[in-house]
Amino acid sequence: MSEERRTCQRPDCAGAYEDMGGGELYCDTCGLAPVVSPGAKPASGPVGSAGSAPTGINGGATRSSSQSARSRRSVSGRLSRSLSGKSGGRSVSVRGSGSASGPSGRGRLGAGLVVVPQVPRPDPRAMVLADPEVPERKRYCSRSDCGAPVGRARGERPGRTEGFCTKCGHPYSFVPKLRAGDIVHGQYEVAGCLAHGGLGWIYLAVDRAVSDRWVVLKGLLDTGDQDAMAAAISERRFLAEIEHAGIVRIYNFVEHLDQRTGSLDGYIVMEYVGGKSLKEIANARRTPDGRRDPLPVEQACAYGIEALEALGHLHSRNLLYCDFKVDNAIQTEDQLKLIDMGAVRRMDDEESAIYGTVGYQAPEVADIGPSAASDLYTVGRTLAVLTFDFQGYTTVYADSLPDPDTIEVFRRYESFYRFLVRATDPDPARRFASAQEMADQLTGVLREVVSLSTGQARPALSTLFGPEVRVMDTELFPALDGEVSRLGARALPGPGRPPA
Fold first, then answer.
1. Is there a catalytic annotation at residue 323?
2. Which residue intervals of the chain bear CATH 1.10.510.10?
3. Which of 182, 207, 265, 323 is catalytic?
4. Can you state the angle between helices 297-316 and 372-387, rounded to 10 degrees?
5. Can you give the pTM of this predicted structure?
6. So what's the pLDDT on residue 469?
7. What's the CATH code, domain 277-454?
8. What is the per-residue pLDDT across 305-339, written as a single tens digit (0 to 9) for each?
């Protein structure tokens, strides 16, 4: 690459691009990635299918920062924000610290004790929704302290996809803001919608500046307050420093001008992780009569061990995940990844909004806020949801477990029940002390479950004692037999022979 092509494209920057490996370029002065890859030709056309629905949403309203524990709806995926601090930039490309805690392809789901069925990595284009639409039963106000049903049908009139909440007046829209072929930040070419989350639609795109890799665009903020936008982008830069094989990579934070409303919408640019969420895997299992067939306990334990390793990495960096559940973990091939970083916050953060999901969130979060103990609580609740037909886990049993005598899995695997009781204890001090301790105990449960299922013991090496020392021969020298010495046979003196 010539010197001219290495020069930073930002007008006010005198730096040059540095190749960080894998074709990723970042300026050595401002730290930003190129808007357009140096020397690359413009994109020839749209990546996905054309003909998406018209764009548009009223993005001019600010969001409340009240705790989501007061709401009975999940608001995960919406990034918390702090209005303190200033940031002059409107785009922040951040490269990782390079201190990954493990290899990118571990392929060890199951801890070597159980074989978990692999989930093939799909063609990203096949995951794009042909007709993106949010069912009426899933339309709720996105304001954290409201959560009222919106966009519902009245009589024969279908529900509106855009409007205002009749309870709090907050605007809502379930119409995609981006369509196939749109170029976001001069770099990301939209292929279409993948799913609908707490901040609106999640999009698949191609990064034209970095090897045409697939990425995911997810809403950062739905607000017209540009100071709040800049502060939020600055506050969330630490997400791009997280590198772990079990956590989705964050590549960039960008803004895009909505041509319809004229508002600047913020997006977080993430690694595309193809596969199935734990929710999809669980819902795909059905009995002959159509009822949901819970996951085998050993498979759920394998998922839990991987999730705890990822949460332990976040905790070691003074971060909390806050919203672990079946929706937020994806299995791709033989690996599990946490995919939604929207609720991640620093342990000492006392200002940002708190995000969680009823039925998974620890009871003390509403009063004292999240902690490492509340993260571990969400793993216990997720394992319960996966392993038996947990009716009423968001209502009657929102903060408790059913009677073990009524749950066949609990009757069969008492150690698993005792594990969940401790993980979801109402008192945070009585739960596991760390993600590592909880993972070790869950591995022990998995060993017992596998042993009961197969009839073959699967013990672990003791952490207190080493293996038994075995001596092959207890005698240093064999017993003497005949005229031999310690060094072997010796010649006896005789006529004409000198003494040996």
1. yes
2. 277-454
3. 323
4. 160
5. 0.70
6. 65
7. 1.10.510.10
8. 999 999 999 999 999 999 999 999 999 999 999 99
